[in-house]
Specification:
The protein is an alpha/beta fold. It has one domain: Rossmann fold. Helix content is 35%, strand content 17%. The chain has 10 helices and 8 strands. An 8-stranded mixed β-sheet has the order 1-2-4-3-5-6-7-8, with helices on both faces. The radius of gyration is 18 Å and the shape is globular.
């Protein structure tokens, strides 16, 4: 398989490309203006992010390839590419706040069997990534990751559609990209996504009483999904104890796509959605891929 690999020269070239784009190339938004510093406080970050390193060694090969994506000076984001076919759809996946890319080593091959290239990416400080996670960093990095992956796929002659997927916290960068790059994205999948940020922060233990923060200061997921008109799949657990089921319903209701589907996983909560709903979950993914590819 002729899969492009990321060596030192590749990193240098990507850094140069990223710099050119940040100066007015293909990136639609000026990411220097993306500012969530009001949330980048220890009393919030300590509840919102749970970074952990990947233990043990990973040997890429066969259908799995490791990437290190440069996003800032001396900061790279770890990712893995589970390769089905060059003509297959590629799912760029942003995971939840307590997960790392390595957690998907058993799930990646399932996506391959379903007919998709699967590409989960980490956040700063997670897995094999460097740096420290912040909300601003996560949201800015999503743009650079998108451009990097788009170029990487083009260079590797991958011709299939591009789908953005976000789970839980990952719904924020996923919807950020869906809003900004709607012309370059073919589909959107949101698993256990939040519609409103402040209720989520309160639920996970953040005390907002002394903070002058409004919902408008947040990620605005509910507003961003209103801008995306292409096929969309929303998946949510019936008894989600972290992000209420009503958030999934709100996202679905706000979605303006004519090709949208809502999948409820019965009897599941936030952490058992895949285990309890495996067949329905993957069947919905397979149907969605068929919708995208025609």
């Amino acid at each position: 398989m002729n899969i492009p690999r990321c060596d030192q020269r590749c990193l240098e070239n990507v850094c140069e490309v990223a710099i050119r784009k940040l100066k007015g190339g293909n990136i639609m938004a000026d990411i220097s203006q993306i500012d969530y510093r009001i949330f980048d406080k220890p009393e919030i970050l300590n509840y919102l992010f749970y970074p952990r390193r990947e233990e043990g060694s990973f040997r890429p090969g066969g259908d799995v390839h490791e990437l290190q994506i440069p996003v800032d000076d001396h900061v790279t984001i770890g990712a893995r590419f589970y390769h089905a076919q060059k003509s297959a759809p590629t799912i760029l996946f942003f995971h939840g706040n307590g997960e790392i890319v390595a957690d998907y080593d058993e799930i990646g091959p399932i996506y391959i069997q379903t007919g998709a290239n699967f590409l989960p990416v980490d956040y700063r400080g997670y897995g094999r990534s460097t740096g420290t996670p912040t909300v601003t960093g996560m949201m800015r990095d999503s743009h650079v990751i998108f451009e990097y992956i788009s170029d990487w796929l083009d260079e590797g002659d991958f011709t299939g559609p591009l789908i953005i997927m976000g789970r839980s916290l990952g719904s924020a960068p996923a919807l950020e990209l869906a809003e900004q790059y709607k012309d370059r994205i073919d589909g959107l999948i949101i698993d256990s996504g939040f519609a409103y940020l402040l209720p989520l922060l309160r639920l996970i233990g953040v005390s907002l009483s002394r903070m002058d923060i409004t919902e408008e200061d947040g990620c605005r997921n509910i507003e961003k999904i209103r801008t995306f008109e292409k096929p969309t799949l929303i998946i949510h657990a019936q008894f989600d104890h972290i992000i209420p089921f009503t958030d999934g319903e709100a996202l679905y209701g706000a979605c303006v796509s004519r090709n949208k589907r809502f999948l409820m996983i019965p009897e599941a909560d936030h952490n058992t959605i895949f285990m309890r709903g495996f067949r329905a979950y993957m069947s919905a993914i397979a149907d969605f891929l068929q919708l995208i590819t025609g």
